[in-house]
Amino acid sequence: MKIIMLIACLLCSTSLQAKKWRVNEVKDLIRKTNTYWQANNPAEVRSFWDNAAYHTGNMEVYKLLQDQKMLDYSIRWAEHNQWKGATEADPAKWKYKNYGEGQDYVLFGDWQICFQTYIDLFYLGPEEKKIYRAIEVMNYEADSEAHDYWWWADALYMVMPVMTKMYRLTGDVKYLNKLYENLLYSDSIMLDKETNLYFRDGKYVYPKHKTANGKKDFWARGDGWVLAGLAKVLDDMPETYVRQPFFMEKYVKLARAVKELQQPEGHWTRSMMDPDQAPGYETSGTAFFCYGLLWGVNHGYLPKKEFMPTIQSAWNYLATIALQDDGKVGYVQPIGERAIPGQTVDANSQANFGVGAFLLAACEYVRYLKQKQLHW
């Protein structure tokens, strides 16, 4: 029976890779996916990381489709939260050094990712209220002496792009310098120099932590956050910035490391080097990887010939296995921080951040197909 299932999977993978996608087909998938999410989930929810991650995808949808109704969903969310993350007014009470959902965790990255969308919305209709809190909080962080803000991998998606967006907004290089300084700290506690991959945080560093099979335990969504975050950073960072080569080299090394660990069906397992730790499909990490790799090909950082087979396989998994007929994005591992043995993830496993990651990948794939058409 196992042999029959394996053959079926291989045949399915081969047929999926033969699919030739067209721009309008992918746009239709984007519309279906985003319409399903917005129709079934209220915009009026808090500005914490999981909701905010969805909106980073929704903003890319608006840039691509110019659909005002989809944009209005993000505006309603921002207005509901008064264009703020955590709301504590007194900087002396602001926290970040451990996990916290309270309103005093203003400097905790999970409450700062919302600023990405607020700044993007500001450019569409410049009203000072949209960015006042972002400037207040990120200016405080950029001027502070501390550099240990980003102690978990997720933060590199949550906050690194905020720093580059703040640079674009103000023209002040201090945001890029602080980004570099903070990332050096992150690297010191999470980066595995042998593989160029990131452990989720200091608790999971090998050999202190191992999979059940004794292997290094790299969590797919965690490294997905990092690769996608680096792509967003490079998108906004000027090539003339003195540290830009550092970020470019880091991005390329991580992209190559990720590429080597893809499964035959196109996804990445939750524990990237040990598929047996938590077997089966997983969409959020795969979508962030697909987006991050596509961005590199589209911008000339990654060789098309080398990376497009990986990207095409990942996209076909997202579009034909993860995406359900009704527009639901399935196989998303729930909120957590590691690959959990025995955890069930199926076609009905959906989450806001998983939809956001899917939309990022889909929008970037449309841009790839448009570039390809120009060279036909």
Précis, in short:
This protein is mainly alpha-helical. About 55% of the residues lie in helices and about 0% in strands.
Explain what this protein looks like in three dimensions:
By secondary structure, the protein is mostly helical. It has 14 helices and two strands, in the order αααααααααββααααα. It has helices at 2-17, 23-40, 49-65, 68-80, 114-124, 132-143, 155-158, 160-170, 174-190, 220-236, 244-259, 284-298, 304-322, 352-374; strands at 191-192, 197-198. The protein has a two-stranded antiparallel sheet with strand order 1-2. It is globular, with a radius of gyration of 20 Å. Mean pLDDT is 95; it is low at 1-17.
Structure characteristics:
single chain, 376 residues, mainly alpha, Glycosyltransferase, two-stranded antiparallel ribbon, 14 helices, globular
List the helices and strands and how they pair.
Layout: H1 2-17, H2 23-40, H3 49-65, H4 68-80, H5 114-124, H6 132-143, H7 155-158, H8 160-170, H9 174-190, E1 191-192, E2 197-198, H10 220-236, H11 244-259, H12 284-298, H13 304-322, H14 352-374
Antiparallel strand pairs: 1-2
